[in-house]
Each structure stands twice: as structure tokens, then as C-alpha cells.
UniProtKB/TrEMBL annotation:
This protein's name: 5-methyltetrahydropteroyltriglutamate--homocysteine methyltransferase
Gene source species: Spirosoma profusum
Active site positions, chain numbering: H700
Keyword tags: Amino-acid biosynthesis, Metal-binding, Methionine biosynthesis, Methyltransferase, Repeat, Transferase, Zinc
InterPro entries, per the entry: Cbl-indep_Met_Synth_N, Cobalamin-indep_Met_synthase, Met_Synth_C/arc, UROD/MetE-like_sf
EC numbers, comma separated: 2.1.1.14
Residues annotated for 5-methyltetrahydropteroyltri-L-glutamate binding in this entry: K18, K119, N124, R521, C522, W567, E611
Residue ranges annotated for the Cobalamin-independent methionine synthase MetE N-terminal domain, each copy included: 3-319
Cofactor(s) recorded in Swiss-Prot or TrEMBL: Zn(2+)
Family annotation (NCBIfam families): met_syn_B12ind, PRK05222.1
UniProt record similarity statement: Belongs to the vitamin-B12 independent methionine synthase family.
Segments forming domain Cobalamin-independent methionine synthase MetE C-terminal/archaeal: 432-754
Record: residues binding L-homocysteine: I437, G438, S439, E490, D605
One record GO biological process: methylation
Length: 766
């Protein structure tokens, strides 16, 4: 029986890649220095996996920004608007083109928007969406996959296994950028390039190539299923001497099982963490000679594996296939896991003994192999750790369980039309009111301030005085440029989930449990280990202080229950909806506390509600029912005069729009700038009844959009939705941006709102 890994975190144990990328973007290091940091991370990752005894070790799983963007560059799928970058930039062309596609390009007299970014299936990782045209051509544009394989081979020998995004999933992850064709029809042009890539890898010595095809676990049309068969038959016919391993994850194969096992490949990987029940069906259909990779170690969470459960799955597979056709692996790439638990010396030892990060998950794979070979001592150690967790009083709080059990229907007092009139009279906002999503730039000074306070180098009074001054400065600046609804800037907050988790019971935090969200953006998700409750106010002190500094409306800023759930490592010993309702009750208590403190506008961010949607449509209704109900729990009983906002980012809303409406937020703000308001079509078709703020400023790019650019987006929005229901705001919070670009962009945004007020007439004015 062999072992393998599908992918490993690429940020480095101390987030070296984040720091190097940002230094490169700022011109502080050159390309050679950037590549040196990257090479060191790759080699450390390969050695870690080699030391853990992994038999097939991934390479080409490293990325400076995103693996789907890497694939676009590899295949020459470069939108035409980036051609000037190649003609303008004299050195580092390939890398500067790459980052221009990811982040936009605004220098050397050029102003080019970034490619669209959205969530990787149902994770919080973001990928860069490929753009396809009807006459799209494909070719090998970059040599990175080959040079990286040769580097890995030097260290790993035949254990080195190149990883590619599979051809069908690559097409389906993208978008058609013109009408008149379907991107899946490009498969005939794409196949020869994949054949060439795989054959070249084989000529260099690769024995295995991993092709990630997560779409095999999604709902597929007849044409898409036929494309899978066509693609892999052609690849198999033309590839010589290379074993193909197709990896699926995040869901069961279900109706695609027969298709997946019939592909002419040498190994198939299935996710038995998300869908252990699929093993029997796969085994019933698996043909002779096909090897089966069992994804039994959770690649997306931090809890120790239940060896006894995993061994049952392994033994079931061995009984049917024999040991030589079974491979043990994580459920998916370990990209979604923190890197190393060993450095977390401050964790409660009892709880730490229940956990495993990426490095420890590699050891779990090896230990399971050892247990199959007869080492029962490892099994007994694992059983003791799991029993400690099951019986711990740190996990279970009966008062919390009772409160969740008592939840009934959750609604606002009056319907939206009644609330809207009351709120308009209360706030008297102008047509196209301007606001931001919540956070302002977290400068180095602010981060140092928090760090010194945590280390005890500042007293509470010293720290709070500095935060108060930063808040006042932000308020005065917002007033000076004419923003209508202000925010306090969130200078006291480290992260929109971590800040709340630190004040809720049932959460714990790591010192270095970072995972990549996109590009150089890393997050350190809280760990929900027990029942959740709110012992004290969390935001009232700072929101109330900010509101007292201005006569303009001040938004209270909260993170919603589904987003806290999605952006945390969640306990796996109870249904996710139960944990969500526990969080919802805690946020509900905070909403009422803010309202009692006189805060009239409260934003409850649910950026991740679309992200949590199951990959299979048949499972959507159950999830959406409890997710929407959890949001409504947070706002139930709130007065009509209190305006509730919510925010969602990087989501396709077509298939869930009626549930977005059912959340019944007075105002929703969404990301729409990269898609040029394309996402609003779902709201227009549905005739969305409440107010909406389509983002006109892409905060994930450093470029500063012009006033005319943002005005044109508002005009587009007003063609789709009633202008009197539109707000003006950025796509998302501004925490990761720099002040100069933020100020310039927001000044242009306010000017755009003024232009829109002049250009767009309406019957109903606020």
C-alpha cells in the first residue's frame, strides 16, 4: 500500500512568500531574490514530505499567486488587454504579466484592470477566473512546470509527481468573455496541449502526473460528461509511459461515479472525508487495474484523524482491490491547512492533543500505513486522544445547547417597505448614498500598536488613546470628502472573524496557523472547539465612541454567523448548522446591545454565505434554509428604524437569489466591479426588492479607478435596478490597502456618486 499527498501549503512556515511578493511588488527586491525565496519554500516542503515517508510527492503545486492563474499562463490564455504589458515592460516580462493579470496594472502610462477573482468551489481560497474567447488558442507559454519538475526530481527522485489543473475543470472554472460559444467546446483545442505537456514531463522522467478534476464531483451536463470521456481517451491514446492520477475532492462522485471509474487512467482519488459513503459504490464499479486513492485525512480542518474509522475504509478497499491498488492520502490539497502544529506552544495541551496541521497530517498518513502493517500501538494512542475530546467539559455547555433548541421562527417586526420609509425619514440620506464596507488600511503603525499592547509594552490607556485618535482621524477624513454613512475604521480589530472569536467562548487561536486566502493575503482562522456563547459586549465600546464624534450616521460592524463558521476551523463532532445557530445567538445579543447604545445602522457581514453552498444542487435547500435562518436570528426583534446592512463578496448569486432576498437585510453590498456589474443581472431578473450597493471599486487591486469609470458602473447598475435603491461603495473592506490609493479611490467614488446624481433621474428621491 502506497501513500501520496495532493498538495502542500506554499506560503512558508513564517509566511515568507507573502512578504517576498509584497517586497517585489514594492520594488524592494528583484526577481532573482523573489525566486530564491520561492525555491527555498519548495525544497523545504519536499523535504518535509520525504521525511514523512510519502511515496508520491506533489510538485508544481507551488504558486506565487494562484494555481489556476498559473495554468492560464502555462496554456497561453492571456486576455488581449495585457498585450501592452509585454510591449512596455523590458525585463521580468513573464512575472510582471502574471501579476498584472492577478492584480491589475497601473503604471508606465498603462491602466489595465485585473482578471476576475472568485472562490475556489466551497472554500475561502480565491482563484483567478480564466477568460475565454470563441477563437481561443492554447499553447505552452511558460516552462515553469518542467523546470519545477526537474528541481523536484533532483531531491525526490521518482517520488516527484507533477500536479496540473485538469483540462475539463480548467475550462469550467473559467468564463466566456463573448457570446456565441460554450467554453467546454474548446476542449478539442486544449487536449493537444495537455498531451504535449504530459509527454514532455514523461520524457523528463515523470512516472505519475496528477490531474485535478474537482468538477467530477459536481453536477455535470451531458455535454460536460462527454467532454470528460473525449478528453481522457485522447490523452490516454497519445501519452506514452506516464501514469495518470485524476483527483476529485470536496464531494461525492454520485451520478458521475461510472464516468470517473471508466476514464482510461491509472488511479482515481476520491474524498472520503466529505463523502465516506461513496466508497461502496466506487468499489462496486471500479474496473480491474485501476488504483484507488482514498482521501481519508481531512485536508480542510485541524482535527486529528479517527484512525479506527479510517482503517475501516482502508480495509474495505483492500479487501476488494488488494494492498497494491490502494493509496492513502489526504482528502484534498493541504493548501487549506495551517502548516505545523509543533510551533503552537501556547495552546491548551489537552486541546492541542486533539489537533493536526499539514505536517502532522503527513505523519497521520504514514501512521495509518504502519497500522495496516501491524503497529497497533499507534492506534491505541489515537483512540485515547479522541476519547479525551469526546468527554471533555471544555467542549460541552448545556445552557448553550438549550438556547439553540429553543430557537423558533426569526423575523423583523415589519416588512421591508414599511421599514424603508421609516429609515429614509430617520437618516435623510441623499440619492446614491456613499459608504464603505467597514475597515480602513491597517498601517504598520496600527499593527505595531496592537503588537506592543499584546506584549504588555503599552498600558490599556495608552493603547486605547492611540486607537481613539486613529478613529477620530478616519472620521474627520470621511467627513471632509463627503461620505454619507461613516465607519470607524476597525483599527482595534485584527481580523473580521478573529476579533469576534477572541471574545466568544468556545474559540481558541493559534500563533502561526496561517492559510492562504488569495495572493499574498493570508488569514489565521480561529478554531471552534466547543459550544459558543457571548459573555460580554464585543463592539459597543468602539462603535459608541465613534458615533459620538460625528453628526453623520455611524455603522456598527459585525461579522455574521455563517461567515464566522466558514472562516474558522469548525468542530466536526456536531452538525455545522448547530454551531452556526450558537454563533447567531451571540451576534443577535450584540446587535441588540448596539441598538440599545443608539447605533441606527448595523452591518452584519455574510461574505461567505455563498461560499458555504454545497457543491451539489440537491443539497442546496437544506443548507440555505439553516443559513438564512441563522442570519434572521441575528436581526430578529430589531426595531424598524434600525437599518440592517449585510455584505457579500465574490459570489455568483443566480442560483441563490431568492434566499438572499429571504435574509431580508435592508441593504446588501456586493462585489461587482471586476465583473463590470455582471453579477447584478441576477438581482435585476429577480426584481430584488431591497436596497443594494454594487461595488464600484475593486479593493483587491492597487489601481485607483477614475471618477468616470465608477460613474459608468453606476449608470450600468441603474439600468438594471431602481436607482433610488442603489448605494455607492467599494467591493469590500479596505484593510489590506495603502492609505494613498484608498484616499484617491474613495475621493473619486464620492465624486462619481455626485456625477450619478446629476446624470440619472429618478421619480423617487430619498
Amino acid at each position: 500500500m502506497r501513500t501520496q499527498n495532493l498538495g502542500y501549503p506554499r506560503i512558508g512556515g513564517q509566511r515568507q512568500l507573502k512578504k517576498a511578493n509584497e517586497q517585489y511588488w514594492a520594488g524592494k527586491i528583484n526577481l532573482t531574490e523573489l525566486n530564491q525565496v520561492a525555491q527555498k519554500i519548495k525544497e523545504e516542503n519536499w523535504r518535509t514530505q520525504l521525511d514523512a515517508g510519502i511515496d508520491l510527492i506533489p510538485c508544481n503545486d507551488f504558486s506565487f499567486y494562484d494555481q489556476t492563474l498559473d495554468t492560464s499562463l502555462l496554456l497561453g490564455v492571456i486576455p488581449q488587454r495585457y498585450a501592452p504589458v509585454l510591449s512596455q515592460v523590458k525585463s521580468n516580462q513573464e512575472m510582471d504579466l502574471y501579476f498584472a493579470m492577478a492584480r491589475g496594472y497601473q503604471k508606465d502610462g498603462l491602466d489595465i484592470t485585473a482578471m476576475e477573482m472568485t472562490k475556489w468551489l466551497d472554500t475561502n481560497y480565491h482563484y483567478i477566473v480564466p477568460e475565454f474567447t470563441a477563437h481561443q488558442e492554447f499553447r505552452i507559454y511558460t516552462e515553469t512546470v518542467f523546470t519545477e519538475y526537474m528541481s523536484a526530481k533532483q531531491l525526490l527522485g521518482q517520488k516527484a509527481k507533477p500536479v496540473l489543473v485538469g483540462p475539463i475543470s480548467y475550462l469550467l472554472l473559467g468564463k466566456e468573455k463573448e457570446e456565441g460559444f460554450e467554453r467546454i467546446d474548446l476542449i478539442n483545442k486544449l487536449i493537444p496541449v495537455y498531451v504535449e505537456i504530459i509527454n514532455r514531463l514523461g520524457q523528463l522522467g515523470a512516472e505519475w502526473v496528477q490531474l485535478d478534476e474537482p468538477y467530477l464531483a459536481l453536477d455535470l451536463s451531458k455535454k460536460e460528461k462527454e467532454a470528460f470521456t473525449l478528453a481522457y481517451r485522447n490523452i490516454a491514446d497519445q501519452v506514452n509511459g506516464v501514469n495518470l492520477l485524476v483527483a476529485t475532492y470536496f464531494e461525492a462522485l454520485l451520478d458521475n461515479t461510472a464516468l470517473a471509474v471508466s476514464l482510461p487512467i491509472q488511479a482515481l482519488h476520491i474524498d472520503l472525508v466529505r463523502a465516506p459513503e461513496q466508497l461502496d459504490e466506487v468499489l462496486a464499479l471500479v474496473p480491474d487495474q485501476l488504483q484507488l486513492s482514498l482521501g481519508i485525512i481531512d485536508g480542510r480542518n485541524v482535527w486529528k484523524n479517527d484512525y479506527e474509522h479510517s482503517l475501516n475504509l482502508i480495509n474495505t478497499a483492500i479487501e476488494k482491490l488488494g494492498t497494491d491498488r490502494v493509496i492513502v492520502a489526504p482528502s484534498c490539497s493541504l493548501l487549506h491547512s495551517p502548516i505545523d502544529l509543533d510551533g503552537e506552544t501556547a495552546l491548551d495541551p489537552e486541546i492541542k492533543n486533539w489537533m493536526a496541521f499539514a505536517k502532522q497530517k503527513l505523519n497521520e498518513i504514514s501512521e495509518l500505513k504502519q497500522i495496516v502493517e501491524g503497529n497497533n500501538t499507534l492506534l491505541e494512542i489515537n483512540k485515547k486522544a479522541l476519547e479525551s475530546r469526546r468527554s471533555s467539559q471544555k467542549v460541552h455547555k448545556q445552557v448553550v445547547k438549550n438556547r439553540v433548541a429553543a430557537i423558533t421562527d426569526a423575523t423583523r417586526i415589519s416588512a421591508f417597505p414599511i421599514r424603508q420609509q421609516i429609515q429614509r425619514a430617520r437618516f435623510n440620506l441623499p440619492f446614491f448614498p456613499t459608504t464603505t464596507i467597514g475597515s480602513f488600511p491597517q498601517t504598520e503603525d496600527i499593527r505595531q500598536l496592537r503588537a506592543k499592547f499584546k506584549k504588555g509594552e503599552l498600558t490599556t490607556d495608552q493603547y486605547e488613546q492611540s486607537i481613539e485618535q486613529a478613529t477620530i482621524d478616519a472620521i474627520r477624513w470621511q467627513e471632509s470628502i463627503g461620505i454619507d454613512v461613516l465607519v470607524h475604521g476597525e483599527f482595534e480589530r485584527n481580523d473580521m472573524v478573529e476579533y469576534f472569536g477572541e471574545q466568544l467562548e468556545g474559540f481558541l487561536f493559534t500563533n502561526n496557523g496561517w492559510v492562504q486566502s488569495y495572493g499574498s493575503r493570508c488569514v489565521k482562522p480561529p478554531v471552534i472547539f466547543g459550544d459558543v456563547s457571548r459573555p460580554n459586549d464585543m463592539t459597543v465600546r468602539w462603535t459608541k465612541f465613534a458615533a459620538a464624534q460625528t453628526d453623520k450616521p455611524m455603522k456598527g460592524m459585525l461579522t455574521g454567523p455563517v461567515t464566522i463558521l466558514q472562516w474558522s476551523f469548525v468542530r466536526d463532532d456536531q452538525p455545522r448548522e448547530v454551531t452556526t445557530n450558537q454563533i447567531a445567538l451571540a451576534i443577535h445579543d450584540e446587535v441588540l446591545a448596539l441598538e440599545a447604545a443608539g447605533i441606527g445602522i448595523i452591518q452584519i457581514d455574510e461574505a461567505a454565505i455563498r461560499e458555504g453552498l454545497p457543491l451539489r444542487k440537491a443539497k442546496h435547500p437544506h443548507y440555505l434554509d439553516w443559513a438564512v435562518k441563522a442570519f434572521r436570528v441575528t436581526t430578529s426583534g430589531v426595531a424598524d428604524k434600525t437599518q440592517i446592512h449585510t455584505h457579500m463578496c465574490y459570489s455568483e448569486f443566480n442560483d441563490i437569489i431568492e434566499h438572499i432576498a429571504a435574509m431580508d437585510a435592508d441593504v446588501i453590498t456586493i462585489e461587482t466591479s471586476r465583473s463590470q456589474m455582471e453579477l447584478l443581472h441576477a438581482f435585476a431578473h429577480f426584481e430584488y426588492p431591497n436596497e443594494i450597493g454594487p461595488g464600484v471599486y475593486d479593493i483587491h487591486s492597487p489601481r485607483v479607478p477614475s471618477t468616470d469609470e465608477m460613474t459608468s458602473l453606476l449608470v450600468k447598475a441603474s439600468d438594471l435596478l431602481p436607482a433610488q435603491n442603489l448605494w455607492v461603495n467599494p467591493d469590500c473592506g479596505l484593510k489590506t490597502r495603502k492609505w494613498p490609493e484608498t484616499k484617491a479611490a474613495l475621493e473619486n467614488m464620492v465624486a462619481a456618486a455626485k456625477q450619478a446624481r446629476e446624470q440619472i433621474s429618478t421619480v423617487s428621491i430619498r
